Every structure is written in structure tokens, then in C-alpha cells.
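Q: Please design a sequence for this.
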């Protein structure tokens, strides 16, 4: 899978994606990226990429012609069929695991990271950018959002997770939050002397009981923390 990233801060990449699981996968060429600096397509002596908004108001807007010029170094066709385009924005459709699974099947995705007040709407419309948000809060730019989307896709690529790391049940895989996990020691004494045990059912040796307990925990946690998932 290939990610093209249009950004004013190309040095932010691969950033955390160069570490751990995604870092190993990058070395093994299971995914690749090209960070394109929007500044390279800026206008005039100062390489200006933005301007004040028509209609007035605060902030600056990234110019459509600048984004287009950067885009044309990746693809010369405005058709989204061969190259899925995403604009990261708090205004977008919320990213979900279902959406991540769909995106992870694409061979190539282009991610546009905004700064300032946003990007001229015309380039988003003309090049059919899909707008995606990673949550209901505002970041200072789209780059961390792009990294989160990339991370979520990369771990689903074939060969990225080893068999031992592939969870059969993880949060959202069945529409519910995951049950709690425990490991040794079975009896843990905290530094203040509290003795904390594990749920007995987990050492009962009864697989069906363990399964039932985990299912009940999943449901109870979801009901408490994310009741919206049950609706
Ligand atoms: N850019 C700024 N905030 C964002 C968010 N919540 N999601 C995606 N991109 C963003």
C-alpha cells in the first residue's frame, strides 16, 4: 500500500510510523509513502501557499492552485478510481474500524493535510476528496490525523501482524469493546501492600466459562463506556 501525503511539514513523516510494527513493515516494503511539500508549489518569491478568505473572517485558506500543482506530481488524472483522495478535517465523516478495513484494501491513497482555516473548497470538489475526521476535537493540522489513519490501515495489511500478534477478538471487531486482560502473577501485591487477584474463571480450565465471562464483560463495558455502539 502506498500513501501520498500533501503537507506543509513533510519532515513529520514517517514520524511514529517509522517505529515498532509499522516501522518494521516500512523496512519490509509492506507499505511506502511519499511526502510532497506543498511549499514547493507556492507562488512568488515567498512560495506563498495561502491567502485570506473571500467573505472575510479569521485565518488563512490554502490555495486551490497550489494543492492542484502538488496533486499533479502524483497523478495527472482527476479520476478517483485509481487513486483514492482523502482530506483530513474535523468536518469530515468520523473514521471507524469499518472504514479503515475498506481503506486498507486500496493500493494507493493520497492524504491532504490542512493547516490554517482550511483548503479552498473548489480543489476538494474538483478532485473528489473524501473528507475524514479522526474525532470531535480540533488538531492544529491534519498530519497527526493522517498518521493515525495510516497506522490503522498498516496494521491490517497482510504480513504486518505476525500470527501471535493478530487478535481474534479486538475492540470493534464484533461491534463491542474488548474484555479485560490479565497475565502473571496471578496474585499481585502492589507497593502499598494491596493484594490483587485475577478473576477465578480465567484459571478454571473451563473454556466455555471463560468465553461466556469475556462476552459478558465485553457487553457490560460497552454498555457502560460506549452505549452508542449498542444502538
Ligand atoms: N485536522 C484538524 N483536526 C482534525 C480532526 N479532528 N480530524 C482530522 N483532521 C483534522
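A: Design:
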Amino acid at each position: 500500500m502506498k500513501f501520498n501525503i500533501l503537507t506543509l511539514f513533510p519532515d513529520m513523516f514517517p514520524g511514529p510510523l517509522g517505529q515498532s510494527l509499522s516501522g518494521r513493515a516500512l523496512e519490509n516494503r509492506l507499505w511506502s509513502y511519499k511526502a510532497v511539500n506543498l511549499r514547493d508549489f507556492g507562488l512568488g518569491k515567498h512560495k506563498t501557499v495561502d491567502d485570506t478568505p473571500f467573505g472575510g473572517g479569521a485565518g488563512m485558506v490554502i490555495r486551490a492552485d497550489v494543492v492542484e500543482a502538488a496533486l499533479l506530481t502524483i497523478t495527472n488524472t482527476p479520476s478517483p478510481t485509481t487513486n483514492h483522495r482523502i482530506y483530513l478535517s474535523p468536518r469530515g465523516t468520523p473514521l471507524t474500524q469499518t472504514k479503515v478495513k475498506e481503506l486498507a484494501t486500496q493500493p494507493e491513497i493520497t492524504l491532504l493535510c490542512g493547516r490554517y482555516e482550511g483548503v479552498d473548497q473548489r480543489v476538494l470538489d474538483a478532485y473528489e476528496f473524501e473528507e475524514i475526521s479522526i474525532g470531535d476535537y480540533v488538531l492544529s493540522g491534519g498530519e497527526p490525523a493522517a498518521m493515525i489513519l495510516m497506522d490503522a490501515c498498516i496494521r491490517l495489511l497482510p504480513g504486518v501482524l505476525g500470527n501471535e500478534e493478530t487478535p481474534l477478538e479486538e475492540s470493534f471487531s464484533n461491534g463491542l469493546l474488548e474484555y479485560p486482560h490479565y497475565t502473571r502473577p496471578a496474585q499481585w501485591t502492589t507497593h502499598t501492600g494491596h493484594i490483587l487477584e485475577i478473576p477465578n474463571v480465567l484459571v478454571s480450565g473451563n473454556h466455555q466459562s471463560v468465553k461466556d465471562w469475556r462476552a459478558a464483560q465485553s457487553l457490560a463495558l460497552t454498555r457502560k463506556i460506549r452505549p452508542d455502539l449498542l444502538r
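Q: Thanks. Anything notable?
A: DSSP finds six helices and ten strands in the chain. Residues 88-90, 133-135, 137-139, 142, 145 surround adenine (CB under 6 Å).
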